[in-house]
Design brief:
The complex is a heterodimer. Helix content of chain A is about 30%, strand content about 25%. Chain A is an alpha/beta fold. Chain A folds into two domains: about 5-80, 2-Layer Sandwich (Translation Initiation Factor IF3); about 85-175, Rhodanese-like domain (Oxidized Rhodanese, domain 1, 3-Layer(aba) Sandwich), CATH 3.40.250.10. The radius of gyration of chain A is 17 Å and the shape is elongated. Helix content of chain B is about 35%, strand content about 20%. Chain B has five helices and five strands, in the order E-H-E-H-H-E-H-E-H-E. Chain B has helices at about 15-30, 65-70, 75-85, 95-100, 115-120, and strands at about 5-10, 35-40, 90, 110-115, 130. In chain B, helix 1 links the parallel strand 1 (about 5-10) and strand 2 (about 35-40). The longest helix of chain B has 16 residues, at about 15-30. Classes of the chains: A alpha/beta, B alpha/beta. Chains A and B meet through helix 1 and helix 2 of A and helix 1 of B.
Chain lengths: ~190, ~130
Amino acid sequence: MIKADVKLDAKGLACPMPIVKAKKAMQGLEDGQVLEVVATDKGSKADLAAWAKTVGHQYIGTTEEGDVLYHYIRKCNPETSAAAEKTFEQTATNEEAIAAGATILDVREAAEYAFGHIPGAKSIPMGELADRMGELNHDEVIYVICRTGTRSDMAAKQLAEAGFTKVYNVLPGMTGYEGELQKEVE
Amino acid sequence: MTNKVAIIAANGGLFDAYKVFNIATAAAASEKEVEIFFTFEGLNLIHKQGMHALEMPAGKEHFAEGFKNAQVPAIPQLVEMAQELGVKFVACQMTMDVMGLTKEDFVDGIEVGGAVTFLEYAKDAAPTLTF
């Protein structure tokens, strides 16, 4: 099971209902949260991806179980995400982070991680970092990565404030990663 | 990029209704501004009684089962949903005069206008679709 913040049951519904329902459901999510849409309409796979692109949300991926499709979409706000400044000073490129062989901490949502991450990367979603810092060692070198460098910037700052010193924000992040992906889904 | 979709509904069969309202609701759900201009037989699609009894094209009646199996919403439901999503309905004044119809014959919340009303809206819309 892939973790999502809100689930929408659109099983049995034909086009355009999964889209209409998704739009309504999305209004109840906070920016950055993940919506799971469960549908049986085969066209919903292409439609939801296109819809997300049109309205500016992030289409994460789809899994299939028999005739049922599970779609994952992360709510984005194009205005705030484009404006976000990255201010954490210690940065590294994707290549440097991978070559270092140190801990790569992926702070994207669990669903994003499930659909493809750098092999060996550890997953702690941004929202869980404060509670799960104990899983990290203060002395270790940590390369923090997300999709575009915004969430990892915030996470790196959080870690630095908590006393982690060898922390690097990885830029550009997963959007610029073309290497092998490890997946938790088929 | 324009955010407006303009649709002309000029035919009044059941298939026509689905083409119009599926595209309209999908566009509205994608944050587009949508306006539909209902003219000639297209007025059936928002007629209070007419929209409940739209006909299939002759010889295609056997698709009724397919609609049922696919759980496609009924047209009045799609009409309501479209309005809920903010799709604007404009009924053609000239056709209404010809057919002896008034605003009260149609679902609530529609506007009445002429060709120029639609053209003004559609001048910077992309796409403009005709069904």
